[in-house]
Amino acid sequence: MANVTEEKTPNGTLAGGAVGARVKSLREAMDLSLRDLADRSGVSAPMLSQVERGDTSPTLAVAQKIASGLDLTLSQLLRLDESGHVVVVKRGDRRTRRKRGHVVAELTPPLPGQRADVSEHTLAPGTATGAADDPPMHEPGSRETTVVLEGAVELFIDGQRHELAEGDSVTFDADLPHHFENNSEADARLIAVVAAGLRRG
After folding, report:
1. Is domain 91-195 in CATH 3.40.50.150, yes or no?
2. Is the pTM higher than 0.90?
């Protein structure tokens, strides 16, 4: 498959509105506001807004900063609209967050239009998901299936508590307030699959 090459204008900017559309799709797929991406990339929110709307074309330097803010390389950002594109995420390249004993590794790349997300969660003893500064609640209609790979956890959702041991799985409406707790003496490891906008009625 041939690589996609973005045309450059004489002043070193990237031509074409596809760049802005990709940036917006990727940002929204990561649940980032313009301000969030501005903080992560070092590109101002007004500039990001202009790029997303196609009002201005970013320079290569600005595009590189935006790509970094989206946890991508510049080439990955500019290739995301290839038809039939296959993205391999190597173990060492996973987007990873660590907070108070909760480690989240994103297994799916932030592709435009993506409606499902797969992540691996590791909870140290005495820790939980769903802290105040964790990512926002999933969008209305989302469903989540979680599989316990190692250890044991408790799911708290809709006023109920559910005990889950190694090998157990659970499916629930992910737009309801919920969190997992590890109240055991060993690490727990989970795989979570969130599919957006599936529930009806």
Report:
1. no
2. no
Domain ranges of the chain: 18-79, 91-195
Lowest mean pLDDT among 92-106, 130-144, 185-199: 130-144
Model confidence pLDDT, tens digit, residues 136-157: 567 778 899 999 999 999 999 9
* Fold: same for 18-79 and 91-195: no
> Which of 147-166 are b and which e, b meaning 16 or more Cβ less than 10 Å from the residue's Cβ?
ebeebbbbbbbeeeeeebee
* Span 171-190, pLDDT tens digits: 999 888 899 999 999 999 99
- The CATH number for 18-79, chosen from 3.40.50.150, 3.40.640.10, 3.40.50.1260, 1.10.260.40, is 1.10.260.40
69 closest CA partner among 103, 44, 99, 90: 44
